[in-house]
Amino acid sequence: MKFAQLDDTIIRLQPDTYQHLSVWRMAARREKVRCPLCDAPLRLSAGISFDPSFLHPEDQLCEWEGLEAPPAELLAAHTEPHIRQAFSVMAEVAVAVEKPFTTADAEIAASVAASASAEAMANTKAVGSAEAGAGAKTVASAEAGANAKSVASAETGANAKSVARSEATAGADRGASAETEEVMLGSFRIPKKRSIQSESDVNRTVPEPPKPPLYRKRLMPKKTIEHLAVRHEEQLHPHQKEAVQTTEGPLLILAGAGSGKTRVMTARTSHLIRELGLSPRQIMVVTFTTKAAEEIKQRLARQLPGGQARELVSGTFHSIFYRMLMFHQSDRWDQRKLLKKDWQKWRLLRESGALAAPPEIGPRKESEILEALAIISRWKNEYLLPEQAGHRVANDDAERLAQLLYPLYEEAKKRTGWFDFDDMLIGCYELLLTHPEILQRYQERITHVMIDEFQDINRIQYETVKLLAAPQNNLCVIGDDDQSIYGFRGSDPQYILGFTRDFPQAKTITLEVNYRSRSSIVGLGFSLIGHNRARWQKDCLSFHSEEGETYLFEPGDEEEQAARIVDEIRHRIETGTPIGECAILYRTHESARPILEHLSEAGIPFHYTQEEDSFYQRQTVRWVLSYLRLALNPDDSDSLKEILPTLYISQEMWNALRSQAILEDMPILHVLPKLEHWKGFQRKHLQSVGEVLAACAACPPAQALELIYEDCRLRDYLKKRSKERDDRRESWSDELQQLLATAKRHEHVAGFLQYMDRMANQEKEWRQQQPLPGEGVHVLSIHRAKGLEFDHVFLPDLIEGSLPHEYALDAVRKGNQAALEEERRLLYVAITRARYSLSIGIPRERFGRKTRLSRFISEMGR
Ligand SMILES: Nc1ncnc2c1ncn2[C@@H]1O[C@H](COP(=O)(O)OP(=O)(O)OP(=O)(O)O)[C@@H](O)[C@H]1O
Known about the structure:
- Helix 25 (about 620-630) crosses helix 26 (about 635-645) and helix 30 (about 700-710) packs antiparallel against helix 32.
- This protein is globular.
- By secondary structure, it is α/β, with parallel strands linked by helices.
- The chain has 6 domains: about 1-75, no CATH class; about 80-210, no CATH class; about 225-315 and about 435-540, 3-Layer(aba) Sandwich (Rossmann fold); about 335-420, Arc Repressor Mutant, subunit A (Orthogonal Bundle), CATH 1.10.10; about 555-605 and about 770-860, Rossmann fold; about 615-730, PCRA, domain 4.
- It has 37 helices and 27 strands.
- The strands form 8 sheets. The protein has a 7-stranded mixed β-sheet.
- The structure holds adenosine-5'-triphosphate.
- Adenosine-5'-triphosphate (ATP) binds near residues 237, 258, 260, 263 and 516.
């Protein structure tokens, strides 16, 4: 149904009220949104492809379910003018669910409030609450009103001031002016300059209400794509067939996304064996992932008799090269000596004494060493040996450090027998180069080489392949320069772009028909990628004439974005989509967390490969949660111990503190300021921390967090710490905001803490227990999605700083466009994974800050 009751008010779902969806969703979670007829708690279902509605519980039959408009008699009981009603509803909901408005809500509320008469305002319930009207100054957002109110009601008058202060900072962050004097009106603050005394004044000064967020819009491609004119009855398009049947000499297959590379590779291998009589042992097929190699083998197994497919030399570069090394030099390449992780390399450097050797290195942070190791790895992939790298002109400090460390790292490995992945590539190349007899054996045995995803090859891989393929050079490379997304690992699209220079006799075949995606999806991808300069110009045709679904949606923030995606997935599953055909592809892991939490809450199984450390285990998150735990239990010594560094208390003081607590038989938090050791200002601060935490226990969790960030000075501490560590990413700030966003969904601190504990435990399960293939939604990074396809694809956070990523924007500011081109290719890969529908999320706020639309949106569509 399209309406519901929230306390005494009838709320209606129609385009001009959609901006309240996130608030109403939260009220619904607390069972405050009910059916006016049967009083059942209603769920808000607001996905992407359909308009929102309120739903009864599945087992509740009600004759109003599905009703579009409230019956007249119901409306008659709610006669307030629309504007006043909207204001009142928003104010009430904000207080009822203790959910501060987003900035967008606040702006709308402020302008709605200002456009109604002051008198009308005075009549609304929210106006006149003494504590809210305390005349707090300089708060820029309506959030502050709600906060000030709940803090005051928790009888922490002193804190109201500081919450207001912290909100002012947050408001200023989001671009609102914190300088303007304001007055309280209900839960809202209106700039004092805007008189609310007379209607005519109001009319003169009222700003236009901001554009309401877009619920959903069809995104049409800038460039129209033609459809394949002639449908071919056969399994292969004539160009695909030509690629399959061209078996002698070098061959470059330039293939657009979804144009059938995997199909061609399988058909070509099968053709070589079945038609030309080659043994599978003569064919080497290199794929980018082990999974892709397996897929080709499985497809071949269906076509070839008796286990022949298993004899094919196939796999990733690393796996094939490693097998060769093990065969010829097994003692040198013992797998137990493989440095798989960066921290192992760092430890090796540290323990070998390399870091202490040359004085130029000086004391270095772990992050600097790891950055230098990444540069070393890139150099090795480019086959730049230590001496050559040492002669390069270093671009920055990180490269200078890498130049110093490179020979030391190589020396340390040599001495101890350890090796890394890059050594395997170099090892194989040098083995073939220095042992002509071994090379000749391979050259005679392997007569045909095929390489998939050639756009992501690096120099050392390419040089090795050239050795193996010689002298016949039956080398078939397949790739799409537009899908080159591993620049940071030393891959370079220049190799695919320069293949015909290296092999002038090479034949080039272009596959231009996209068989995978519906036409508007193909069009969006093609329009976008056309903005890259460093690429082969290709035409693009769509096999399918149906348009498909391409949506932009604009949720208030990342939480609402996650809720919308999950509602849409639930709807798709209910209408028959297999669950494994839905995929959420993200640029960075921060985008995944709210989505995983919402999927978990909705009980929808998902596949997720954790690539980074757990959000819930990060130091900043642990500190914040420990503060909250201490607020609930001042005797929680583990939590106090955890936050000691943030209070500038050394571990030595810990014993004194514990003894004192036992002596005085008092909670440890209460003993804290009493120790004799403290200087005046420190004692004062510790005293205030105790008081603030006592107040936090009674606050809604979002307000409690604000108090901890500001009044316990956790934000100051984190800022200082990150400056000292020269941490340019400042990820702590995003972490604080993510916690705040999650806290806003909870009513009580205890409930929020329980939820976070549950998520932390579930996250461990997410890592270990994956649903069976096809039985879960896929949540994966765009990098990992390469080569895959799904019916419905969701792309969250298409905003500046996320995609394109901040580091690419930084590079652009320094005049380097290459990173931006790689970001564009990443988005191209993401778009072209979708068969039927593509939904792009643009949250208006993220991490509590206003966002800007990704520049890529206007490049691809309108
Ligand atoms: N000739 C064809 N007729 C019908 N369907 C085809 C044909 N060629 C390929 N397809 C289908 O198109 C889809 C994309 O094919 P495939 O995965 O081989 O493309 P790809 O070029 O490897 O894609 P990408 O590089 O984007 O990962 C698959 O579902 C495949 O079955």
